């Protein structure tokens, strides 16, 4: 028995803290289980009542003469601990703590919660809550409403996990209004033990769950979450996961001296996590329901296997009996990343043979206001068979000849013969209700407005695209970890938390980055000698721990073309620096090769307490400051993810030989991202890092680090 | 009597083409008027029926013994013309043509439509349609459902204009489900005569209309539309106009040789028109209804005047009995351009005295799950009185102690005492229905989900912001129109439709643009002389009608520092050009002053057949190519609109002394936009224009035209 089965499908339930007073949570939950038709045996536990709602009560869970699978606990924190101990003695298999007053109030409550979790962990008992609405399993074999919502949802194929109890009741109401059925419905409250990842893993194995919806305020696991959920969404069983995430609970980046730090808000972390895990993020509850109904749509194949209908591509055929909604659908199709299919000549001929003269035979197909179900059926059948069509949106508006129910049946007939998704939009709530109900009862997604149907189709396509992604072979890098460790150790033992440019460049070199030849010159002659050796033109920069803004101090001279100029530049920089800050300790100047031309990109990292290193890539220089055209990925970032990140940059066409420029070396960018991911994972002391700009050259010409900024933290508080 | 009153509030209606056969449009419309309780007198016209639905019928409208205000025409195009002639003879005041088969089918239908419109125009009769659903006035004094929708909406304060008949029926169904009432409901079909602007002007004067919603596929008037609708939305009566626009019916820009042409799709034109007219564009029917209910919300002031409640600023106070939805609202508040209000100390003290210890006294205020109506009332009253609060969102989720109806009453009590808007979100459709109905009946906006309420609040704020905009005094420019006309005339008579750089620069100079001193040199000595006179450094460029891509021909040399270099450059350019294209007719080279440094912007114009010149402004150079960070405005663009355009650029902070750069001269940008608007209106021969880059310098240092491209069309087909 899976360790969460006791929570969702218990044979017996004890309600500890059951009460005889209506309005009290301990009464309502007990009543909801009892009246919800629970198929197992239910026991109220109350030290002073003889019976609750006519059911014999027991003073303690230990007094129940039978085995108990699940305890629902509704007791104040002070007495809850005792009840948990008794439950453990009794040998229960799961506990749902509904009561509040634990971690969320801090102090004693938090301590109590920790103690309960620790006891249950030792006893191998999983705990849901505390501070939650409860758990519902509406499926007929269990039919358990262990929640304080009086409304038992219909059974269905969608499971819902909610971090907010209040949202649960609203979602149940909304679902009732939409004939929306659930498989499991769970409020996770404080997540003291069971969290969303545990539930995702459980529900992924649940044969009754086809789609998982989550309302989330924060995650407590990052890389581990991605690793597992990636398998859930794209592995063998392929369960779509839809998330509505809210809450600006700062994920708490540790510093913000870098661009990466400043740009990577907690939303960036979550967007990265969801993208890397293959989770579909939705913006509103409306969308959550709309998308869920599209994803839940499965059809029996001719071998009798249920298969989710996903589009193979983004080419949509629209069939409508009204122009206006067809245009709305077309617009939204395009803005949802889809495109209108172009029909083959044969399809157009078939359409012509079935449709009136005035009908539009091209996409969107207008079957005209007086279309009967037969005309819809013929048109839909023709377009769905077209090889250039990946799925269809059928729009029906109530007009005088419209028969919504018969048209719904016609749609189902065509859908059963095709493996392409067909989404319907029956406009109007009352006049078309017979058709809408027919489609809903048979599990076909149906929407009230064409924009909703088109958006849901877009989500199906994005998911299909995620499933079809190529997994690129990893790069085989060899890094000089030992030397890198030395550079970091030396800096830290010298008390430095900001690496100087020379050290920064050295560290990046250990991980295979191409850097500009750079050396420190202590005299004018040394500067001239180094410059001659490096090769002209060179750049020279002041090196002084007291001077951070080198340009302000006249401490940077570029375009130095010969040895005489190098000597002169050295003197000028030292003089300027001394004048700028007479007390500055001056180490000399860096002599650095002038960077070859290239596209300015930025590559950075910022570290989060729970999630670990977050890698940022985007257009650098002024672009990053003005447009924040950057993409994030939580480490580890492999080659496929690196490529997705590069493609995710809005100005990506700058790399593609845009306006006569050479095509950029994007493979070296993929390498750079993967190298950085490896580096920051190997060295938890690197707190923050910006390579800005990383200059990307033409194909096969690589990329050069032109400047970098690296911030360290003492290894003993690295937080890893 | 206003010329559309006969359409919306006729004393008598004749249905010409009324039929006794159910299912026929002529029957259904007649039946709908009859059964809808029309307060005037209704006459069926049918040449062969004695009576229709027991009402005495007349063979022709001329046979009716009484005066007729409105004719509803349901006849095929061939016989419609005769019926129109008879109606004119009869002296009717308005005609609604429901039948289809006119302009939309072309040919004879189009001709028939034109003839009807022309006859009616001469007779001073307004025509709605053809090819429409009809007209509905649900207000009790009229109660006319002259449409083929069997559903008569409830009376209300919102008028709806739809370009799609099919969408009308869906909207009526949706409205019925939401208890949404209408003042006027009209399907405009082909817009042969009456169009959306006529109706906007009429409804703006209508005392029963508070908000206008439009479903639009295309506009046929541009600058005129803006000019009038601006007054409707922001003038004395201030009627909010909400538009859902769809349809990629290309607005038809005339060429696309310029950036402006390539970037300005028809959506850009519409976005500009809506912004300039103060119209609020919505994305979906859900949003249309949500926003309309928020905008319809008016309250009696203590002087007994009804006033719309608009927020003075964007600071929102959230009061909720559940954490999760409060967070959702907070998130959406921020992404809707609002911010969470910070409470004064006094407010927090009042909250503390009314709320339990565990309540959150800061924004969002959590009154805790067990909040009664009294606690809601106290908290809401405290925050709405705070000077730092511009309005409130109240969120209620059904929990055990929740009384939705009493809380609704409490909200209304507080709202009546305040002039700040309060939007409610009652989550759950069934359990909270008593409260929702109470609010709806009393005209208070109530939503199902916090994100919807927050978005609607954001729309109220944007509208309030539009109303409160400053109107800047116009610039007083004097332009040398005469010389500009000469340059254009000369180019056109020489058969040129693309102005050379020298002429382009000359044209811009006539309108006060700062250009770089530029002269044509025909020999190397001339080049050296001109360069010396202009002042070094200079740029030199080949001038040849056959060489468009000057750089490819080695035809551009920059950074010429002295006379010898100028001579050398001349020879080199001529040689290169001759080698590149031996047959090229070479006029010499331009000698141009090197541009001073500045921020690269782009300023352009493209001309549309109906809408006229569309001005584009944005970041130039590579920015425009990569990020398309540009904003559009339909001419004429005055100073206030120019400022709004500049502020609308995403990367606007580049002008604000960003990262140590000097603050840019944005006043000169405003001037440049206004100058360009004047120029393209004065010279309809200018078809397309790009100034790219227009280099903007530091404050009071102006802006320089560094390059321009101007395309002309022969003045006799200017389309203006």
Q: How many strands, which pairing sense, and closed or not: the largest β-sheet of chain A?
A: 7 strands, mixed
Q: Identify the most extensive interface between protein chains.
A: A-B, 67 and 68 residues
The N- and C-terminal alpha carbons of chain A lie at a distance of 35 Å
Structural class by sheet pairing and helices of chain A: alpha/beta
Provide a descriptive summary of the structure in words.
The structure is a homodimer of 720-residue chains. By secondary structure, chain A is α/β, with parallel strands linked by helices. Among the domains of chain A are: 310-446, Rossmann fold, CATH 3.40.50; 522-593, Dna Ligase, domain 1, CATH 3.30.1490. Helix content of chain A is 38%, strand content 22%. The first copy, chain A, contains 23 helices and 33 strands. In chain A, helix 7 links the parallel strand 12 (211-216) and strand 13 (241-245). The first copy, chain A, is flat and about 100 Å long.
């Amino acid at each position: 028995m899976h360790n969460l089965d006791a929570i969702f499908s218990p044979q017996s339930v004890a309600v500890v803290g059951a009460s005889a007073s209506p309005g009290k949570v301990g009464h309502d939950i007990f009543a909801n289980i009892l009246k919800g038709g629970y198929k197992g045996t239910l026991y109220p536990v109350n030290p002073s009542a003889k019976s609750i709602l006519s059911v014999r009560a027991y003073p303690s869970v230990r007094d129940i003469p039978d085995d108990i699978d699940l305890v629902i606990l509704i007791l104040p924190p002070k007495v809850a601990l005792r009840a948990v101990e008794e439950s453990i003695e009794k040998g229960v298999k799961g506990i749902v703590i509904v009561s509040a007053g634990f971690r969320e109030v801090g102090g004693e409550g938090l301590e109590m919660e920790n103690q309960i979790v620790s006891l249950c962990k030792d006893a191998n008992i999983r705990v849901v809550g505390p501070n939650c609405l409860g758990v519902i399993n509406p499926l007929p074999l269990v039919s358990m409403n262990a929640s304080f919502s009086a409304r038992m949802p219909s059974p269905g194929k969608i499971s819902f996990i909610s971090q907010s109890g209040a949202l649960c009741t609203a979602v149940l109401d909304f679902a009732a209004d939409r004939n929306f059925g659930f498989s499991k419905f769970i409020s996770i409250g404080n997540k003291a033990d069971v969290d969303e990842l545990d539930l995702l893993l459980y529900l992924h194995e649940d044969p009754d769950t086809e789609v998982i919806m989550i309302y989330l305020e924060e995650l407590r696991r990052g890389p581990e979450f991605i690793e597992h959920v990636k398998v859930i969404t794209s592995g063998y069983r392929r369960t779509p996961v839809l998330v509505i995430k809210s809450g600006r609970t700062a994920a708490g980046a540790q510093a913000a001296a870098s661009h990466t730090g400043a740009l990577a808000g907690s939303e960036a972390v979550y967007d990265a996590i969801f993208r890397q895990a293959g989770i579909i993020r939705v913006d509103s509850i409306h969308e959550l329901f709309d998308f869920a109904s599209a994803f839940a749509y499965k059809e029996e194949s001719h071998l009798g296997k249920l298969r989710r209908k996903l589009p193979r591509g983004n080419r949509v055929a629209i069939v409508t009996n009204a122009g206006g909604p067809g245009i709305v659908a077309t617009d939204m199709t395009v803005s949802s990343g889809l495109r209108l299919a172009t029909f083959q000549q044969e399809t157009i001929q078939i359409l012509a043979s079935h449709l009136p003269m005035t009908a539009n035979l091209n996409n969107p197909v207008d079957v005209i206001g007086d279309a009967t179900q037969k005309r819809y059926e013929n048109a839909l059948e023709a377009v769905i068979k077209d090889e250039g069509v990946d799925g269809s949106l059928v729009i029906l508006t109530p007009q005088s000849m419209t028969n919504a129910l018969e048209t719904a049946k016609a749609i189902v007939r065509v859908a059963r013969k095709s493996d392409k998704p067909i989404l319907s939009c029956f406009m109007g709530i009352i006049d078309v209700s017979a058709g809408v109900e027919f489609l809903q009862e048979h599990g076909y997604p149906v929407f009230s407005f064409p924009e909703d149907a088109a958006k849901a189709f877009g989500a199906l396509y994005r998911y299909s695209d995620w499933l079809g992604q190529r997994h690129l072979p990893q790069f085989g890098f060899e890094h000089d970890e030992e030397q890198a460790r030395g550079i970091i150790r030396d800096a830290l033992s010298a008390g430095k938390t900001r690496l100087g440019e020379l050290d920064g460049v050295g560290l990046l070199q250990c991980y295979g980055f191409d850097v500009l030849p750079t050396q420190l010159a202590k005299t004018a002659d040394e500067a001239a000698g180094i410059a001659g050796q490096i090769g002209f033109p060179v750049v020279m920069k002041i090196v002084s721990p007291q001077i951070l803004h080198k340009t302000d101090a006249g401490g940077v001279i570029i375009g130095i073309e010969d040895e005489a100029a190098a000597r002169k530049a050295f003197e000028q920089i030292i003089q300027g620096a001394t004048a700028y800050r007479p007390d500055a300790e001056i180490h000399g100047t860096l002599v650095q090769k002038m960077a070859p031309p290239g596209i300015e990109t930025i590559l950075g990292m910022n570290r989060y307490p729970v999630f670990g290193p977050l890698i940022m890539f985007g257009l650098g220089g002024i672009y990053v400051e003005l447009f924040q055209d950057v993409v994030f990925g939580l480490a580890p970032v492999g080659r496929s993810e690196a490529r997705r990140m590069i493609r995710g940059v809005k100005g990506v066409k700058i790399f593609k030989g845009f306006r006569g420029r050479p095509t950029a070396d994007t493979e070296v960018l993929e390498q750079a991202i993967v190298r950085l991911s490896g580096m920051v994972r190997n060295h938890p002391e690197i707190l923050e890092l910006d390579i800005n700009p990383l200059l990307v050259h033409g194909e096969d010409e690589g990329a050069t680090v032109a400047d970098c900024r690296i911030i360290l933290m003492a290894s003993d508080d690295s937080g890893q």
